[in-house]
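At your convenience, could you comment on the folded chain following this short note?
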Amino acid sequence: MINATARASDRLEALGLELPALGFGASPYFVNHRAVDSAIHISGQLPYRDGELMGQGIVGRDVDVPTARELARQTALNALAIAADAVGDLDRVRIVQMLVFVASTPDLGEQSRVADAASELLVEVLGENGRHARTAIGVAGLPRNSPVEIQMICTAVQHEETP
């Protein structure tokens, strides 16, 4: 159950998680995020943990759905770290849209279940600010043979002043 009054950073800690350090997936060709007006577009992220890709392969052939769900959670956590950096504070992050790519066999049909794990994490950490529009797509392959890639659009919310 989500404590609606808890700070996002406290919820994250209660889940036994911490935002990963930035720097993973650095490229000379693109940036991790780009702000356009109030929207922050986060580049596609892969399931890295401590600089290592957590899994490779095709879901439904090399990777089972429960494993793919864990990879999706880590990928969402990585995107959340970038979002927090972009807006300056995890408590100011509001997810607008998430696009989840799942490298999967043509007959899998469970891309939404994989994406649900990422959506659940965002709501667990951000509460209502984690609810978002979402698309889950099955694809033939992803960079570095990753089973999952997530792209997000977020915005910053203003802190309410407390008397």
About this structure: The domain at 36-156 is CATH 3.30.1330.40 (60s Ribosomal Protein L30; Chain: A;). The mean pLDDT is 93.
